[in-house]
Amino acid sequence: MELRSNEPTGPIEHRWEKHKESSKLVAPANRRRYNIIVVGSGLAGGAAAASLGEMGYNVKCFCYQDSPRRAHSIAAQGGINAAKDYQNDGDSVYRLFYDTVKGGDFRSRESNVYRLAQLSVNIIDQAVAQGVPFAREYGGLLANRSFGGAQVSRTFYARGQTGQQLLLGAYQALSRQIDAGTVEMHTRTEMLDLIVHEGRARGIVTRCMKSGKVSAHIADMVVLCTGGYSNVFYLSTNAKGCNVTATWRAHRQGAAFANPCYTQIHPTCIPQAGSYQSKLTLMSESLRNDGRVWVPRKKEDVTKRPEDIPEADRFYYLEERYPAFGNLVPRDVASRNALYVTNDGLGIGPEVDGERRAVYLDFADAINRLGESTIRERYGNLFEMYERITGDSPYKTPMRIYPATHYTMGGLWVDYNLETTVQGLFAGGEANFSDHGANRLGASALMQGLADGYFVLPFTVGNYLGEVRTLPPLSEDHPDVKQAIARVEERIRKLMNAPDPKHAPEHFHRLLGKIIWNKCGMSRNKEGLEEALREIPKLRDQFWREVKITGSGETLNQTLERAGRVADFFELGELMCLDALKREESCGGHFREEYEENGEALRDDEHFKYVAAWEWTGNPAEPRLHKEPLSFEYVKPSKRSYK
Amino acid sequence: MSDQLLNLTLHVWRQNGPNDAGRFETHQAKDITTHMSFLEMLDVINEELIEKGELPISFDHDCREGICGSCGMVINGVAHGPQKLTTACQLHMRQFKDGDEIWLEPWRASGFPIIKDLIVDRSAFERIIQAGGYISIRTGSAPEANELPVPKKDADSAMDAAECIGCGACVAACPNASASLFTAAKISHLSLLPQGQAERQDRARKMVAQMDAEGFGGCTNHGECEAACPKGVSLRWIARMNRELVRSMVRAEAPIESRDR
Description:
The complex is a heterodimer.
Chain A: H1 15-21, H2 28-31, E1 35-39, H3 43-55, E2 58-62, E3 80-81, H4 93-103, H5 110-130, E4 155-156, H6 162-180, E5 183-186, E6 189-197, E7 200-208, E8 214-218, E9 221-224, H7 245-252, E10 257-258, E11 263-269, E12 292-296, E13 314-315, H8 317-321, H9 331-343, E14 359-362, H10 364-370, H11 372-390, E15 399-408, E16 411-412, E17 425-427, H12 445-468, H13 479-496, H14 505-519, H15 526-546, H16 558-582, E18 596-597, E19 600-601, H17 605-608, E20 610-615, E21 624-629
Chain B: E1 5-14, E2 23-33, H1 38-51, E3 74-75, E4 78-79, E5 101-105, E6 114-116, E7 119-120, H2 123-130, H3 152-162, H4 169-173, H5 180-191, H6 200-213, H7 224-228, H8 236-251
Parallel strand pairs in B: 1-5
Antiparallel strand pairs in B: 1-2, 3-4, 3-5, 6-7
Helix pairs in contact in B: 2-6, 3-5, 5-6, 5-8, 6-8
């Protein structure tokens, strides 16, 4: 396996243009001869399928939900960045590029990030033309806000539902193509394997979630836009159905998986209330602008009502430890400190499995200073949501919050064209590793998904097809296809017939999540990771022995769907821990306790300035590591410090 | 936060595929804490059913934060259950009392055939959008975003209509099983914006024709849809849809034929 980034050279601002000029094209009349499979219908997949359909290609698009409009991009709240500089506050493509490379802690590819910043402006134009109802000023022009500590106001938003509105824009464009007959949509259909023929991705094997029917779909190429893998932690802010299966199956067929240990933890989520908890809900980070984070100073106070704890006995740990930034320290710093104070036994809220894992976010001072009506104006909808879930009113008593996994920067390794290490297999959106390095900035996920879907993939897909010209026909009877179907059927059979069936798949998923969260979560160390690497294979063996699925595989069976996803999370979880163990430095979302200086992450550019791309070898314990060295010509690596 | 345990009796609609007659099945839910979400309560029952070797209750759900529109069931006769402006996934058990009996049914409408248990086929909504619920704009051909100002009032109204999550509660709540609120919300969202004007003429006719072809009933102003809508989408959009429809019919050159279902 060879990692060639295929990025153009020369001045960075001309690279994308230069690349387009030297790439192959497919003439409009020839496009209908090509069949393209797009898996996933979120911002990246939906936008790519719609755009490729418009261009005249034959597209088949797949999603596991009952409608492409339900992909988890829909849940993004905050906004989307774009270097429009409408606010005249000094923003530019270069500044967005600079912020993204620095925010990613110097672990991303400069050429990709620059292109992302350039395309950001086109995304806003496209979305507005589609009818996305962004917030506007009284003069009728688009409104912006500053987001996640950015020094410029470059974030566009549609109330607290920016992801929803952008996804509906892409969904409506996709619906238009479905009606036009250029896109064939397969809903409630799950990709379970990749078909590789003569070294090229030529199709996928799917299971219809209504009938249980396993079928092969053959095409000229495959694009995966199947999202991230936060659900390896069991509890995350992802939708329940989000899974790693499509990318993991592709990984097993030769696609390298890059930087799996880079995961992002969001500091302000509603904490777990009991062992039955099925997911975590994110509360906007903006709450930290006015809320003060604290825990009791004394362990004996953790069960008291917060109102009964006098001011002197409250530990405002962020304000004390980071006087300059206080409660507004970056996501990873805020999250880790919540971990440390709860490790010290100062966590509050109900005990779950013997631990109290929550801290207070208190608005009492802000309400006294600004009045309840101002606070209601700023955070009313968030306070309502909090009360709906917890039954407590944040106007009367402090919120309880705790960090949760929210986004994964790692994913399938791709080159500048978003092509994986399998020819003809492309990956876009959160499913690839490309643009965020070790840490993603707020409001940049929507930007990347749509840049890949609307503007990068439609072009690089044409380049690939223009290069290969005509691929030999592949019949469903070919052994490569039959073997892929057989792999899927065999796996389903194995899951349905565990030798000693005892527990539902969730039971094992919860145990796996606990291992990953405790040992490969906010804070990691060698000892913990090695323990995890001993525990995961044991639990995985137990899963395959004891997983219990009732009913049949030849009909709608949600337990079987979940079991297949959990099985893949076991293998991915092991790779995450291996990657985290191998990366002996701290950077972005990856914090190794051995590599820190006064509590701050200590990067090691001399030894770890590379992308770790892992190749599947058949043994999950022994993947092969390939390194793509990173160079920084424009943004000079520097140290992050918030003291 | 006070903690309390509930013991509940659930009567759940079980139907093994579209051709099965279906029946209520009774389950006991024991020691359910009030902090659980409604769907977590079903998760707990399902895990017990699986461990006992029985078939779990099938229901649609995904984001569990009230935005994807996947979940939906009729709880004690009310679409999405007793709490206003709340999807089933955001409903919590503190809305119930110890000893309550809970009846669970799928959306019932001929436009939404039952797939299994509480899962219905909402693909009719897809076809309504495909009939014209979009602005035809090619990727890459958009003008600069600020070239066309949109009055804030119009943008805010369009956003109000665009809040719809496509869950189908409006259809389930309507005595006529009408899909008017869903269809009207999209027609209104797009017709309120300057970008949506070019296709305004045909959009209402095409989408309404498709809605009728799918077997949804007509609107007779009961207002149950608005009451059930977890996003508070307003009934006034239906009035707007009717205005759009009349407007386009007056100007139409040829009738729109409904497409195949």
